[in-house]
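Hi R.,

Here's the chain you asked about this morning:
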Amino acid sequence: MSPHRSPLPLILFALPLTLGCGDKDGADDTASAELVPDGTFTLDYASADGFTEADFAGLTITIDRATMSAALTPTSGDPVVLSLTELPEEEWIKDCYTMNSHSVSEAFTVSPDPVVIGALSIPSPALSTKCGGRVLLGSFVEGDIVDPTLGFSE
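And the predicted structure, written out as tokens:
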């Protein structure tokens, strides 16, 4: 009589390979898209070489979707007025990948280019909510928001 081995180890090994990571380019991305909200938000995150959140203490961004504009308002100095242009849905940011899904975040290109806030310059600027979290203003490169990036929350 030959010994019988359980197929369980082989199944457990092969199962993740057959499931893969899901359809990262799914057809129904916008059904659960994170939209950029209207309102006023305060800086709570800075990711830019040589800068910290303290360099932008009190900076707010006010987003007005009706007029397709935003205003960056420092604690002292004049506001920086931005014009927003919505990117087509197929160019919205895909992020927050899991084994079988991802989120999609609405994105706007921003002018002027670059956006200048004090000594910080953000080239190729875009505005999004990437991963449904804070509002992000950063450089838009190859379909993603990259540094320098400023993050704002309520």
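The two ends are 71 Å apart (CA to CA).

Let me know if you need anything else.
M.
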